Amino acid sequence: MKNNRDVTIYDVAKALNLSPSTVSRALKDHPHINQATKKRIRAQAKAMGYQQNKFASNLRQKKTNTIGVVVPKLNSYFMASVIAGVEKITNKNGYGLIISQSQESGKQEISCVSTLFNSRVDGMLVSLAFDTKNLDHFSLLLKKDVPVVFFDRVAECHGCMSIKIDNFKAGYEATTHLISQGCRRIVHIGGNLLRNVYADRYNGYRQALADNGIDLNHKLIFITDLTAESGTEIAKKILKMDPLPDGIFAANDTSAVSAMVELQESGIRIPDDISVAGFNNEPISRVIKPNLTTVDYPAREIGEIAATSLINKLENLQNISVDTIILKHSLIIRHSSLRGK
Amino acid sequence: MKNNRDVTIYDVAKALNLSPSTVSRALKDHPHINQATKKRIRAQAKAMGYQQNKFASNLRQKKTNTIGVVVPKLNSYFMASVIAGVEKITNKNGYGLIISQSQESGKQEISCVSTLFNSRVDGMLVSLAFDTKNLDHFSLLLKKDVPVVFFDRVAECHGCMSIKIDNFKAGYEATTHLISQGCRRIVHIGGNLLRNVYADRYNGYRQALADNGIDLNHKLIFITDLTAESGTEIAKKILKMDPLPDGIFAANDTSAVSAMVELQESGIRIPDDISVAGFNNEPISRVIKPNLTTVDYPAREIGEIAATSLINKLENLQNISVDTIILKHSLIIRHSSLRGK
DNA sequence: GTGAAAGCGCTAACAA
DNA sequence: TTGTTAGCGCTTTCAC
């Protein structure tokens, strides 16, 4: 914010022999201003290179027109797409965006939220970190009238909206599909059960087993951080099992893929010996051979809907009774799970 | 920015029977304030839940303490890591961050830059979009005293700093390595030559051929958008060539990997029939079989150095003569290019 | 349809 | 070491 961009409303007022208030009103298209003067003012402002000073405006209006976004990590296609959807909506509605990464850490999440709060964002879009337990940092926001919309990794939180998919159903479908291919001893690679997405996928898995008369075997359940490293480690453990499992349902593609790689290196045939399904439809799922069966869901739309909901809330257009929006997902069946009969 | 967070400096001043300026100074640890009063003030401020109003402060100081970041896309490990590095430095120095994606479009880049400029960021960190030609939107910034630091995809731009690696050398090394494995008909999958990274990698490739007495064959050179789709398409073209090429040097891992997949599906053996090298060391390079030979470079450090340089510039600590910083890279040789002799 | 004037919360020059 | 005061640029109430 340097001097040479400081053409103020006063400067253009002076140039036109008008008052600053008239200029201010004209520039925001206030109805009480004469069309002709509006035009003159706009032209003059443009000619002089006038630019609104948002700080003065924010200071005066007590509104920043800025939305804060807190995500675990930016490094997935899923997140990048969500954010593209968010940007589309916020741009269109004149909101700015501040994005920060919690790096999957609950502690860092608290600090992100507090930083955003301090920069007085009007509202926040949040997908929770892996190990966030306590939601106090959000209830604080709500007390201060800063609305929060959760997406994907959501929280039960009175007064917050959530945008997600039916992870239970998706987990159920993926597992059922594996069962339909003849799998009976199905490993589940799950994430932290504090997070709805992982708890729901896990429960879907359990339900599918139950509905098919398969007993739950806790030795087949691995709750991890879902990194590539964990996938590899679990594969090593799987290789030591006797009898060998015949299926894997992983809560993300990263761990599914790295497990597959490790298993294949030890001579396991996929899908014949072990069938595998992942989650997220990351591009990597189409690189691995055989291509990975996975669950696809509409990242961009999630972003758009989350942003729209938040803005509606901010502008009091919100239907207050809306609490959760659930989007469609689909199981994409590929060769990692399709056994020739 | 709602009422209930509006405890001002006046409120705490009144509570302590001090003047607002003393409070202001104490809160920023101004040296002229008595330690004891500083403590009292801090305690009181905390107790009352005081929070600085950045807009008032920015308005007054004509400085936003905010840095704008413009990147092509967020969906790579490379970018996510760069941004993590940037965040680390900016947080430490009390700067905020606004991140926006140009989606590889020069047009959108212009609009990102203008939005950031309008929110009066103090400076910008930029990695150019694929097809940005004209750099006027940046020279405009410089005229207005908003410093710009480019990273990775940099520009020749008087007054801007650049952080990058030696792409020429990296391209040269990758190609030389392929040649050392016996490759003679080496395809190059390159990106838009407007971008330094792609032009340099291409030139490195050419130089390596020349230094090894191999003629440049324009039929082996594909300039594309480096998406997975392009990789697949090029692979299809390669399959129709006679004689078949015996090597591929791609300017990113995405296109290298998708080309490999397509080639393998047609029975081409890698590396024996065709050896492949990529660029970026994305995680995908260790999923594909055989693992992809690629060029690694320090994303996080690039982010840290870019942010540090920009902040130095903003705070006039800058050694003005520094123009370009070049970081180390390394060729990571894996099985996609290693032929058993 | 337009203008005058106050004030958003903070900082910094100047005074004490 | 602390206080007084003016003003950053904008919006908005009230007056005309």
Account of the 3D structure:
The first copy, chain A, contains twelve helices and twelve strands. Chain A has 341 residues and is α/β, with parallel strands linked by helices. Chain A folds into three domains: 9-52, no CATH class; 63-165 and 299-328, Response regulator (Rossmann fold); 167-297, Rossmann fold. The first copy, chain A, is elongated, with a radius of gyration of 26 Å. The model of chain A has no long low-confidence stretch (mean pLDDT 91). Chain A binds a DNA duplex (16 and 16 nucleotides) through helix 2 and helix 4.
At a glance:
The structure is a homodimer of 341-residue chains. The first copy, chain A, has 341 residues and is an alpha/beta fold.
Distance between the termini of chain A: 69 Å
Average per-residue pLDDT of chain A, rounded, comes to 91
Q: What proportion strand of chain A?
A: 5-15%
* Largest sheet data of chain A: 6 strands, parallel
Number of helices of chain A: 12
In total, the number of domains of chain A comes to: 3
State the low-pLDDT regions of chain A, or none: none
Principal-axes shape call of chain A: elongated
User: Which strand order does the major sheet of chain A show?
Assistant: 2-1-3-4-5-11
Helix-strand string of chain A: HHHHEHEHEHEEHEHEHEHEEHEE
Question: What's the CATH topology name of the largest domain in chain A?
Answer: Rossmann fold
Number of DSSP strand runs of chain A: 12
Oligomeric state: homodimer
The CATH architecture of the largest domain in chain A comes to: 3-Layer(aba) Sandwich
The assigned structural class of chain A equals alpha/beta
